[in-house]
Amino acid sequence: MEEFPVRTVEGLCLGTSLAISGLFFYIYRKKRKSVDKLNEAPHMNLDGKLADLLNVTPGKCLQYVVIEGAVQPVGEPLRSQYQEGSVGVVQKLMLREHKLVWNSLAHTWMDSECVLHQRVNTVPFSLVGSDQANVRVLCPLEASELKMEILHEKFHQATYGFTDIVGQYLSGEKPKGQLETEEMLKVGATLTGVGELILDTDRVLKLRPPTDGSEYFLSTADFETLRLEQEDQAVVWRVLASVFALAGAAVLLWVGCRYYRSLRVCWEQERLKREFETLGAGGSGATQQGSREQETPLENDCVICLTQLRSCVLLDCGHVCCCYSCYQALPQPICPICRQAINRVVPLYQA
């Protein structure tokens, strides 16, 4: 039995698709776990009773809860560099370069972006609810879904002369310009936090990343919107994992079908070989002896080996010119007489 025929390209496609599918499935399972935790997380009202509830809770800790409140700084807030009067608690300043890069495969210019400079400033802040109850938010930069408001966005167009244009075509890069942005989590914004809630020794409520490895969320959207976004992301990862798994299965099915076709060809060759061997053992020995006795040794001999009798009919041309062993040894399935392609071969029964 011949080995399973997997070509290099097929093996590469199969391995890549299965690896990517496994990676996407791992991300999906992780995202699905986060969604399940969100669905099970209790919603806590941010009021004066929350501290009393945590005080009687074992360990003074709730591992995964949902808290909503208004953002208020603990001390002086951050001030916007570009928008006067805007204050916040988290500020992100970013400078990105946009350029066109020549793609030799697609023979076109492709957009590219890289970060030249980024700075993030934070100050301690809390979520404030009714009765002026507040929860201190810890490690905000470790949270997911922290989308801040864009306060400033300006694109600085690149300028260049003739020598710059020549250099760009030689280097394959065309600078388009630089984008300057400022994002800020503003004071007073409503924030939804999902994480571990603890009561500190000084009776200060604090929200921090869960110690059990669950995902930590801070979002300016409400909880239902946050939950639906996470659900949609889980569905996307599941679809991507399924698509790549189906691609790998399709490659494997293609290889299996080709292997089955090659096996059918081998089985047909084995059947013909047994048929020719049976024919040679039964009648071609006597025929060969009779022909030798009639002193016509080359009349019915194979035109290739000149040793064995002609024992097969080549179709569709119909020539009877060789034995089955020489037919199998042909480098290409072409008739040695007329050079026509051989579609099939049948044994010659000599009377």
From TrEMBL:
Alphabetical GO biological process terms: protein ubiquitination
Among SUPFAM superfamilies, the record links this protein to:
RING/U-box
- Pfam families per record: GIDE (PF12483), zf-C3HC4_3 (PF13920)
Q: Which residues form the RING-type domain?
A: 302-339
Species this chain originates from: Oncorhynchus tshawytscha
Q: Does the keyword DNA repair apply?
A: no
What is the topology of this protein in the membrane according to its UniProt annotation?
A: Multi-pass membrane protein
The reaction(s) catalysed by this protein are: S-ubiquitinyl-[E2 ubiquitin-conjugating enzyme]-L-cysteine + [acceptor protein]-L-lysine = [E2 ubiquitin-conjugating enzyme]-L-cysteine + N(6)-ubiquitinyl-[acceptor protein]-L-lysine
Q: Does the keyword Transmembrane helix apply?
A: yes
Q: What is this protein called?
A: RING-type E3 ubiquitin transferase
Which residue ranges run through the membrane?
6-28, 235-256
**GO CC annotation, single:** mitochondrial outer membrane
Keywords of the record, alphabetical order, are: Membrane, Metal-binding, Mitochondrion, Mitochondrion outer membrane, Transferase, Transmembrane, Transmembrane helix, Ubl conjugation pathway, Zinc, Zinc-finger
